[in-house]
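Methods — Computational structure assignment.
A single polypeptide chain was analysed. Its primary sequence is given first, followed by the predicted tertiary structure written as structure tokens.
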Amino acid sequence: MQIRQIEQPITSNTFTLSDAPDRLGWLVPTDPYQSRTALLAQYQAQGYLWLKGILKRDNVLDFRRRFFEAFADTGLLVEGTAPVEGLYSGGGKGRVSKILGEIVQWASYEAFCLAPEIWQFYENLLVGPVYLHKRKLIRATTPDDSCTGAHYDLTYLRAGTDRICTSWIPIGDVPIEMGGLIYLEGSDALGRQLEAEFSAKNAQMPPEERINAYNKNMSETGWLTKDLPLLANRLNSRWLMADYEAGDMVIHSPYMIHASTTNTRMTMRLSTDIRYQLVRDEIDPRWTANWSPDDKL
């Protein structure tokens, strides 16, 4: 598949990915209603599944509207526009963290993350009753915001099972120009290798330090790097992108290396990332409380 013409250079933390088109590719879409055998085989081979249209588009857009209505009097939105559009005014960020701290406790947000389409998918894939982590992240990203560097999720979840899946859900349409998640092709195996190396280095540390994503053997952020083009070149790999649509959901393994890119539009990129696992597996206790700005994760 050829990469389509894009409107703006693809960047992440000042590094430009689109200068080397041979280091870019596309995610492979997946029909979420295939057999479990087919889904599991694809997940294990790729480290991710881009599940097209698994959620009802109208439900996703309804929650997008509810989310941005919470910022109606903050100056975050362009005056006179419909909240569902999420048009960024260029200011009004002073109360964002406080309101986000309230939104993650909304019953409607919990219900959105517990949509039957999601938990039933996971019960089928993982074969058993599943648990949704209490700590859930929701982000409304503007062109002003920095990007998330290359990382794999188990870095922040070391006190629980590694049989965990992350769901990344675009809450609205997210074309490439709005900077959705990108995935390093074939990196599930690399994440496993890196984690084994970190585990060996951390073996003599006290338990609290051993699970800490920011211990002396890690970076300040827990990221592998901000320089995404350099990482792809070093590994002779590609960053895989997508034009996401409301109703899509990507799931990825805790070892799959991923990052985000710059939103070049004034429409805010709203997304949430949540995590499911089997109830019977060990749960990281740090993820059993709602997200807060000072939770140090």
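Note: The chain has one domain: 17-284.
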